[in-house]
């Protein structure tokens, strides 16, 4: 089979770094596709993206005026650790 050194594969770190811009639709088309592909194949980043999207919906509806970064971080950690426990 093919090698796994394809330059188009992002690491989780890279994907998460670009997540905000990805959701803001401010990445280049190529980069956006790379992030999308990573999220589609990675449970961890998929969960992170879901949390981030959910927050954005809430913010847009103004259910949450300003979600503190600490709260966002806490929920993210909880969701990802839940997912990890479920898998493990
Ligand atoms: Zn990932």
From TrEMBL:
Entries under InterPro entries matching the protein: Anit_sigma_mycothiol_RsrA (IPR024020), Znf_put (IPR027383)
Protein name: Mycothiol system anti-sigma-R factor
Organism placement in taxonomy: Bacteria, Bacillati, Actinomycetota, Actinomycetes, Actinomycetales
Superkingdom assignment: Bacteria
Domain called Putative zinc-finger: residue spans: 12-45
Biological source species: Boudabousia tangfeifanii
């Amino acid at each position: 089979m093919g090698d796994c050194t394809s330059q188009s594969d992002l690491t989780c770190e890279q994907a998460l770094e670009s997540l905000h811009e990805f959701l803001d639709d401010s990445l280049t088309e190529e980069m956006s596709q790379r992030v999308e592909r990573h999220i589609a194949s990675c449970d961890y980043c998929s969960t992170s993206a879901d949390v981030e999207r959910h927050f954005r919906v809430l913010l847009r509806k103004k259910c949450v005026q300003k979600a503190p970064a600490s709260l966002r971080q806490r929920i993210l950690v909880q969701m990802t650790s839940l997912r990890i426990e479920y898998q493990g």
